[in-house]
Amino acid sequence: MSTSVSRGLGRASLALGAALASTVLCATVTAAAPTGVGAVAGRGSVKGTVGESACPVVYFDLGETLVHTADDGSITYLPGAAPYLRALREHRIRIGLITNVPPSWGTTDAERAARLRKEVDAVWKDSAPFAWEDFGDRIFTPRTEAERKPAPVLWQRARAESGRCRLVFQAETAEEVEVAASLGYVPYQVGQPHRPEFLPVGLVQLLGHRPH
């Protein structure tokens, strides 16, 4: 791990540690507040639907973070992913994807996202459809092979579209989490033992209140 990545991950870990220390307080506030009150609105210029809170924004990798591809090629939600996305939606927290797809799938993020949706939906086997609508236009994909993760470009592009919002990135690979941390994202590696499947929603809300 490079020195810059280590420092970035260290700073992000401090922020996450402070959030973890406030879990009980945050849970109390969240339970007492009306839906959507927990996140701070108006601090960034993030685009989205009416009623969503502006900050924070939670970005995910897709494969083996939110969905799993079986040996037969079918795709389903990973355990806990569907209810987690639903909880973020209920709290009006914006979400996005930062994921690798072939650059040949389109000339714009929108075109490549549409092809991604088509490919996933064609082999989707879960009882509930994948929550594409929740991601809006916040699906960032490589325009060239050089932009493929772990190159930093996709995270940088997502940050440029997120104003001053605090950003979270959740993925299953340590390398991607480390790169995101070095770029100022609050990192969370999913699929680790003895910890929640995803960064708890209450902590995401709390991070939205903390100074960037």
Describe the structure.
The chain is an alpha/beta fold and 212 residues long. It has a single domain, classed as 3-Layer(aba) Sandwich (Rossmann fold), CATH 3.40.50. Helix content is 37%, strand content 12%. The protein is built from seven helices and seven strands; from the N terminus they run ααβββαβαβαβαβα. The chain has helices spanning 3-21, 23-32, 81-90, 109-122, 153-160, 174-182, 201-209; strands spanning 57-60, 67-69, 75-77, 94-98, 139-140, 167-171, 186-189. The strands form two sheets. Strands 5-4-1-6-7 form a five-stranded parallel β-sheet, sandwiched between helices. β6, α6 (174-182) and β7 form a beta-alpha-beta unit. α1 crosses α6 (174-182), α1 packs across α7 and α2 crosses α7 (201-209). The longest helix is centred in the N-terminal third of the chain and has 19 residues, at 3-21. It starts with a helix and ends with a helix.
Give the C-level CATH assignment. Alpha Beta
- Please name the fourth-level CATH homologous superfamily: HAD superfamily/HAD-like
Give the strand line-up of the largest sheet: 5-4-1-6-7
Report helical residue fraction: 25-40%
Shape: globular
Please outline the helices and strands:
Blueprint: H1 3-21, H2 23-32, E1 57-60, E2 67-69, E3 75-77, H3 81-90, E4 94-98, H4 109-122, E5 139-140, H5 153-160, E6 167-171, H6 174-182, E7 186-189, H7 201-209
Parallel strand pairs: 1-4, 1-6, 4-5, 6-7
Antiparallel strand pairs: 2-3
Helix pairs in contact: 1-6, 1-7, 2-7
Signal peptide: 1-27
InterPro entries: HAD-like_sf (IPR036412), HAD_sf (IPR023214)
Keywords: Signal
